[in-house]
Amino acid sequence: MGIKLKRAYEVATKEDGMRVLVDRLWPRGVSKELLKIDYWMKDIAPSKELRKWFNHDPEKFDEFKQKYNVELRYNNQFKELKELVSKQKGNVTLVYAAKDEEHNQAIVLKEIIDNKN
């Protein structure tokens, strides 16, 4: 039981539990049937300005985490996600499309929820 991370281009499995897409845009080339998400929380994604500034640059990731954390303080969908995670009896998988599996918003979301739950 817990929070898992998975790219949108990986196959959905039963072990994923509840699947939540945390990107503002739908992943390219993936049908709804293949993605098999339970919730699409597009407003939880980083702001357009923050996303453009970060541009998936690993050297900016620490600063990105700080700035994204500030955005999440005032984000209603982030509050909803924390509630979903706390009520879920099984796994919750945060689904994202980024190619970089070590520097993306899903990692930040997981870290924050794990530290505050």
TrEMBL record:
Pfam families: DUF488-N3i. InterPro entries: YeaO-like. It comes from the Bacteria. This is Uncharacterized protein YeaO (DUF488 family). It comes from Lederbergia wuyishanensis.
